[in-house]
Write a structure and sequence with these properties.
mainly alpha; 164 residues; 2 strands
Length: 164
């Protein structure tokens, strides 16, 4: 497979995993209830992204998790992807921080306390929007080569009242 040099690393992994699926690699079995929608992705789409990620792990395409990129204290046990339409634009997180990230919409005060409790100024957590991202906006963000930069711009526009 030839990939242009400017292709983001997460998109290279996505192409490799999609090629494996197209070549017959079985999808891992999801053994839990379907999750609710999140940032424009349906529950079924979220399950499929989990399956893609598991295949990426099985094929050795995923980087090691290491330390949680949110609290920087605990071992990362999984990954968080804010934009499900870029399934490999991930951040390693521990279970506790991952739950906090997903609960931030319903508990903004608790989320702000978490951010104020030693989260570095340049942390990716600080660019996460406080309102769910619509499907249209999530798809637009996913098209951008630098998802974090696009997400930061989206969040800034949302805070400035320029986006719904």
């Amino acid at each position: 497979m030839t990939v242009p040099a400017e292709t983001p690393a997460d998109m290279v992994i996505e192409r490799q995993v999609n090629e494996a699926i197209a070549s017959g690699h079985p999808l891992p079995r999801w053994g839990w209830p379907q999750p609710p929608p999140y940032n424009g992705a349906t529950g079924a789409e979220r399950v499929y992204v989990w399956q893609q990620n598991r295949i990426g792990q099985m094929l050795g395409l995923m980087p090691r998790l290491g330390t949680c990129s949110a609290c920087e204290r605990r071992k990362a046990e999984g990954s968080h992807g804010e934009i499900y339409f870029r399934p490999f634009a991930l951040h390693p997180v521990c279970r506790s921080c991952h739950a906090r990230i997903h609960r931030r919409y319903g508990s903004p005060g608790t989320w702000q306390d978490f951010l104020n409790d030693g989260t570095p100024a340049g942390s990716w957590l600080r660019i996460l929007p406080m309102k769910p991202i619509s499907r249209v906006d999530a798809l637009e963000i996913a098209k951008r080569p630098d998802v974090l930069k696009a997400l930061a711009e989206y969040s800034a526009a949302l805070q400035a009242g320029k986006s719904e």
